[in-house]
Design goal:
Helix content: 40-55%
Mean pLDDT: 77
Number of strands: 2
Oligomer: single chain
Length: 71
């Protein structure tokens, strides 16, 4: 909780409560969640006949996601 308080203290006093209210609706995503969302988004990109990017996802962990441009 201390880190949240420190974060809110960066804002002018009149904005701290509104910012705290906004933060209560934040959904935290793990690296694995982000990796999946990025991968799903890339699959939806229309390449219009171009080769695009190739994703390498190793072992189901986000650290293994790497994108390379295919030429």
């Amino acid at each position: 909780m201390a880190s949240i308080s420190s974060f809110l203290e960066q804002f002018p006093p009149n904005l701290r409560k509104p910012m705290a209210d906004l933060m209560s609706n934040i959904e935290m995503l793990s690296r694995v969640d982000l990796s999946k969302l990025i991968s799903d988004g890339i699959e939806k990109v229309h390449l219009n006949g171009k080769r695009g990017f190739v994703g390498h996802h190793a072992g189901g962990c986000a650290e293994g996601l790497r994108l390379t441009r295919q030429s």
